Amino acid sequence: MTTPYAPQTTADTMARIAAGVDPWIAYRDFLEDWTYLPESRADLMAREPSFVDEEQRRWATLLAASVEALCARDGLVAPAWTRRRVFRLAEP
Questions:
Q1: CA angle 4, 76, 26 (to 5 degrees)
Q2: Rounded to two decimals, what is the model's pTM?
Q3: Cα(83)–Cα(81) distance, rounded to whole angstroms?
Q4: What's the rounded Cα separation, in Å, for the pair 89 and 40?
Q5: What pLDDT is attached to residue 86?
Q6: pLDDT at res. 10
Q7: What's the mean per-residue pLDDT of the chain?
Q8: CA dist., res. 58 & res. 64, Å (int)
Q9: Which tops the pLDDT comparison, 34 or 2?
Q10: CA-based nearest residue to 17, from 48, 45, 50
Q11: Alpha-carbon span 57 to 80, nearest angstrom
Q12: How large is the average pLDDT for residues 66-85?
């Protein structure tokens, strides 16, 4: 029996980070799915990533900025959640 592959969304990425996966590995996995599964991009970015503390908010902010940049590069419209104020840091 094989399990079908489920691409990693922004929400999945934050869930993995919250579960203790190295944030850079989780982030890289999201970027790989974005790169190699262009037909899944709308689903990958559809759900807003949730966070519970400031450290996770910083990672969620990186995801929001990445989605905006990737959408601009690939001619897609970024989801509205990426423009929410909570995804802006006082200092870069």
A1: 45
A2: 0.93
A3: 5
A4: 28
A5: 96
A6: 98
A7: 96
A8: 10
A9: 34
A10: 50
A11: 17
A12: 98
52 three-class SS? coil
- Residue of 65, 67, 52 whose CA lies nearest to 18: 52
At 25-64, the pLDDT tens digits run 999 999 999 999 999 999 999 999 999 999 999 999 999 9
Distances (CA, A) of 61 to 1, 4, 43: 38, 29, 18
- Look up residue 14 and give its two tokens: 């934050």
Surface-to-core class of residue 68, CB atoms within 10 Å of its CB (0-12 exposed, 13-18 middle, 19+ buried): middle
What's at 71, amino acid-wise? C
Amino acid at 91: E
Percentage of residues in the chain having pLDDT higher than 70: 100
In angstroms, how far is CA 57 from the centroid of its own chain? 12
CB atoms closer than 10 angstroms to residue 73: 8
- Which residues lie closer than 8 Å to 84 by C-beta, 6 or more apart? 48, 64
Whether 59 and 17 have beta carbons less than 8 Å apart is answered as yes
